Amino acid sequence: MMVSQLIQLPFEGVDGWSLNHVLRYRPMIAQKPFHIVPDNILLHLYTRFILNIPDELKEDCAKNFVRIFFEVERAHWFYIDYCIEDPSVGGVDMFGLTQQLFEKFPSIVPKGINWQEKFVEWKKYRGSTATGSMIIIDEHHKMILLVQGFYGNRWSLPGGKINQDESLVDCASREVMEETGLDLANRILPSLYIDRYIGGTLRRAFIVEGLPRTSRLKPGTKNEIEAITWFGIADLPTHIQDIATMEKLNSRPNNFYLVIPFIRQLRLYIEQRLSGKPPGLALSESERLCCNSMSYPVHLQHNAVNSLSNMKVNATSTPSKKQKKNKKSNTSRSPNQSLSEDGKTGEKSRNRTSSNVANNAESKKCGEHSVTRLPRLHP
């Protein structure tokens, strides 16, 4: 196990972590092999992303050291895309790269600055950063496009976190281009979107209709997206206890928890569109109908999804006698038990089973959906 698997958990999507929580992991780090980034790569990243940044950015970093982590994050993205020789093994996470850069080039950190405290501060801010994505609907209004990362089983709408001084529209366009190879900047309507709050973070999904299923799909970045496929809208779950749908997909609720909050209103939106209503009117009507629905209210759905996203599970723990007894007596176990989270980028968990590892030109079944696995891209 690499150090990234030990350090990532405290910072990913969790508020309130202090330096004491970071220090608690140091004994664990000392007992595990540390992934060392070669000196020539560290030098290249330092020169390209830190040493030669514009003077105004250097001034910003001098005034507010937290600003430097945005540049280190850009370096980490470059490192994941072009510097990892074996993507199946992976590399160091954001914290690990920061640590090695600052140790190799100590002049980056001003005297009197505790960079680990600043890193926690930056991570909290980054964790609450809004995301922009797209709900890409096919020409028949029956399917939407979902993506899956290399290092997790989670399906999501193509999209990602907003950059500094970037609009959510530009963010969604950029992320969709990076993850699918589709340039939809001219087709996005800034007012046609669905907002959801998941884990306290705003996730805005812009609706784009009429994309042919025959469109060529290819990620613009390396070692990030493993699979891109069309899913039937009627086949996707509308809440985390939609057991029948999950069984058809041969999946778990947490594999779709970033998609679930959008599906109910999306179905209503498509119904309105197929009845002849224009996009704007269809969106407002779908929102009204969704809020008035008594089947599974939106605010309860959000709370349930947030609870699922914040769960931490020890998969290797041994159940107690009481738990074993309850397991035998309760045959209808809630699907949100014993779940784990995987992510979409190289910083996320790398504990993949061999059946989930992509092979060149490999196809895999997810329920009735044929999922084309993209070949791993090497630098």
TrEMBL record:
Compartments in which it is found: Cytoplasm
Protein's name in the database: mRNA-decapping enzyme 2
Record keywords: Cytoplasm, Hydrolase, Manganese, Metal-binding, RNA-binding
GO molecular function: 5'-(N(7)-methylguanosine 5'-triphospho)-[mRNA] hydrolase activity; manganese ion binding; RNA binding
Lineage: Eukaryota, Metazoa, Spiralia, Lophotrochozoa, Platyhelminthes
Biased composition range(s): Basic residues: 321-330
Pfam families: DCP2, NUDIX
Naturally occurring in which organism (per UniProt): Schistosoma rodhaini
Catalytic activity as recorded in UniProt: a 5'-end (N(7)-methyl 5'-triphosphoguanosine)-ribonucleoside in mRNA + H2O = N(7)-methyl-GDP + a 5'-end phospho-ribonucleoside in mRNA + 2 H(+)
